[in-house]
């Protein structure tokens, strides 16, 4: 987005979701701001996926995360995803995409 560089739509929407106050109970960053926590898969499917991505297909959403390099891990029954360039501050997303151009 900055300096004419574009961010994939999926990542932009994902970042919008995790920055929203109302979605925190469903999908959020952990306290460190480096890990996405998927706290409520059912509500993600019912509310957020249709609103932001036009479908209710959780496996498709998970494939997209994988396609963009997110690493999945289970933490006490909760799915978490980590990507070295996807962080709460957002600046790293822009920097990583600039490097690829």
Automatic annotation (TrEMBL):
It holds the Pfam family HSF_DNA-bind. The keyword Lyase does not apply. GO terms for molecular function: DNA-binding transcription factor activity; sequence-specific DNA binding. It comes from the Eukaryota. InterPro entries: HSF_DNA-bd. The keyword NAD does not apply. Keywords: DNA-binding. Residues 6-100 form the HSF-type DNA-binding domain. Belongs to the HSF family. This is HSF-type DNA-binding domain-containing protein.
């Amino acid at each position: 987005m900055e300096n004419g560089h574009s961010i994939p739509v999926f990542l932009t929407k994902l970042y919008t979701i995790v920055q929203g106050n109302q979605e925190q109970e469903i999908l959020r960053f952990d306290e460190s701001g480096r890990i996405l926590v998927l706290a409520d898969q059912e509500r993600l499917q019912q509310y957020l996926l249709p609103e932001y991505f036009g479908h209710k297909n959780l496996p498709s959403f998970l494939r997209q995360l994988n396609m963009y390099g997110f690493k999945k891990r289970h933490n006490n029954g909760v799915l978490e995803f980590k990507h070295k360039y996807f962080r709460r501050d957002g600046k790293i997303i822009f920097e990583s995409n600039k490097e690829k151009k």
